[in-house]
Amino acid sequence: MIPISKPFIGDAEKQAVLEVLESGMLVQGSRTAKLEEKFAAICGTQHAIATSCGTTALHVALLAHGIETGDEVITTPFTFMASVNAIFYVGAKPVFVDIEEDTFNINPELIEAAITKKTRAILPVHLYGYPCNMDAILSIADKYGLFVIEDACQAVGARYKGRAVGSFGTGCFSLYATKNIMAGEGGMITTNDEALAQRCRMIRNHGMQRRYYHEIMGYNFRTSDLHSAIGLAQVDRLAEFTQKRRENAAYLNAHITSVKTPKVRVDYEHVWHQYTIRVDKSRNRDFAMKQLNDAGVGTGIFYPIPAYRQAYLIEAGYGDVSLPVTECIVDEVISLPVHPQLTQADLETIVTEVNKL
Prior knowledge:
By secondary structure, the chain is an alpha/beta fold. Helices cover 37% and strands 15% of the residues. It has 2 domains: 11-97 and 104-235, 3-Layer(aba) Sandwich (Aspartate Aminotransferase, domain 2), CATH 3.40.640; 238-354, Aspartate Aminotransferase, domain 1, CATH 3.90.1150.10. It has helices at residues 11-23, 30-43, 54-64, 82-89, 134-144, 194-204, 225-235, 238-255, 285-294, 311-318, 324-329, 344-354, and strands at residues 47-51, 72-75, 93-96, 119-123, 147-151, 159-160, 163-164, 170-174, 187-191, 208-210, 213-214, 268-269, 275-278, 333-336. Strands 1-9-8-5-4-2-3 form a 7-stranded mixed beta sheet, sandwiched between helices. Strands 7-6-12 form a 3-stranded antiparallel beta sheet, with no helix packed on it. A two-stranded antiparallel sheet has the order 10-11. Helix 3 (54-64) runs parallel beside helix 4 (82-89) and helix 3 crosses helix 6 (194-204).
């Protein structure tokens, strides 16, 4: 089976973990501080704040912006549920806007109509590593005085018009094991706002700036130096990994002819966390996925159901929401392997089997 994802774990990652174990400094020490420094450099921001995972990065960012009960946050329904759950965690209400058919990202042309007096923020998701239309989103946010919190958990290294995602608003990233660079688990918040950065640091660490002096209520959302050490071993290879993903995606685009393949707009620099094709409904996506899996090509469906169709959201009153583009896309998408460890033989096999669909 050609796996849909395959974390790279080499000698450098193994040695980095051993060095942390031998040092005895396991939690939020020098490795975490160094990873934060390097991550800020990647994103072109003044600050990066490490957290325990991408979900806690989103949670902390929302808290740091003062999003609370009664507020509304506009976001996409086509995403991993962490994007939505973080909004619920702070007591706010997610408001869903339909997506663009070609990018799978939130459609900025529909955002303004969703704004109410309760709207406090827009939370765009750079899905699959494809940047959102940040000019349009920032223009709307500026017009209405809204915060922008970027869910860039799948998009480290992606750029929009030459500028890194995570630098337009408050960026949130994941370092989970399947991400483009990983630490096994972990998250990161990026910002140019010093006061906001300090508030994020306090929230992730029990509300402290000084040990045992709790200025605000906080959480234990710290990361470990074990995870940060793995991240440090990976972060300098981001450009290499990204280039390989782009080469793999280009090969697939050039040779797959049987289904709709992803296209990238000018000025959008995709990092291909996922390579996602569309199988027309008349051809039965689920049967196509089984056919590929039986032929040894690993696949994934990201994601098979809109956020507002999840059982607990229906119970929360979202049963009447209906967004036609999202509801079409969830029945058509299949993600194929695109990770850097694919061989030429793997790529040829993927193309051959997809073109049999």
